[in-house]
Amino acid sequence: MLDVTDEKAVAACASQIVSDLGAVDLAVFNAGVWHPMSASKYDMAKAKDSLTVNVTGVINALDPVMRTMIARGAGHIAIVASVAGYRGLPKGAAYAPTKAALISLAESLYADLRLKGVKMTIVNPGFVATPMTSVNTFPMPFIVTESQAVDAIMAGLKRGGFEIVFPMRMALMMKTLRLLPYRIFFWATGKISAREPPAP
Ligand SMILES: NC(=O)c1ccc[n+]([C@@H]2O[C@H](COP(=O)([O-])OP(=O)(O)OC[C@H]3O[C@@H](n4cnc5c(N)ncnc54)[C@H](OP(=O)(O)O)[C@@H]3O)[C@@H](O)[C@H]2O)c1
């Protein structure tokens, strides 16, 4: 199994794929970890693990793949972030910053890559029922199945726009949250944080 945090192994894998199969038309960077974490249970090792897998892992793969795509003036890169990257949310202290970084990374590269003939897409799912979310004990509004997520991602990749975000109701809720001024936003997130039982 390839560990995306191993820079050399990822670079070797990327060149092996090109030599075995030819140029990459579409690369989807999907590996990620979720460590739910509030301030009272902050765990530095897990926070660093989130950063290493979710951000450094993508950068490790992005570098060799993007170079070859730019060189041939074609290709499509999709990075899986999350609507959790829109704003800092309770329990998201380790995860949300990594997804915000990926959204910013994709936005930063988009225009430049487009001029070079390479497409960039950011995938921002809401809750999807996978092993990742099976640990969650809190309500997960509008959660979708894996196959619904796959359908939404495949349809979005075919459309070829910058952002794939689903399901629609979660997208609307999270995009609205993004517009709230801090006073109202922290009033709302404070209600969610207050539900957490005190640390033992
Ligand atoms: N589920 C959701 O509600 C949700 C919502 C928004 C965004 N996302 C994002 O969607 C992506 C997929 O998540 P998922 O829900 O399918 O979670 P998952 O079932 O836990 O799958 C995570 C995947 O990442 C791989 N991975 C983790 N660390 C890795 C590493 N160091 N090197 C290589 N692969 C590694 C895992 O491989 P192994 O199984 O071999 O460990 C697994 O295939 C993640 O980026 C996640 O943040 C998920």
Radius of gyration: 18 Å
The CATH first-level class comes to: Alpha Beta
Please tell me the overall pLDDT.
Answer: 95
Q: Provide the domain count.
A: 1
The CATH topology is given as: Rossmann fold
Helix content: 40-55%
Bound molecules: NADP nicotinamide-adenine-dinucleotide phosphate
Shape, principal axes of CA atoms: globular
Structure description:
The chain has a single domain, classed as NAD(P)-binding Rossmann-like Domain (Rossmann fold), CATH 3.40.50.720. It contains six helices and four strands; from the N terminus they run H-E-H-E-H-E-H-E-H-H. It has helices at 7-21, 44-72, 96-115, 146-159, 168-179, 182-194; strands spanning 26-29, 76-80, 119-125, 163-166. A four-stranded parallel β-sheet has the order 1-2-3-4. Strand 3, helix 4 (146-159) and strand 4 (163-166) form a beta-alpha-beta unit. Helix 1 (7-21) packs parallel to helix 2. Bound molecules: NADP nicotinamide-adenine-dinucleotide phosphate. Residues 1-5, 30-34, 53, 57, 80, 82, 125, 127-128, 130-133 line the site of NADP nicotinamide-adenine-dinucleotide phosphate.
What are the key terms here?
globular; 200 residues; alpha/beta; four-stranded parallel sheet
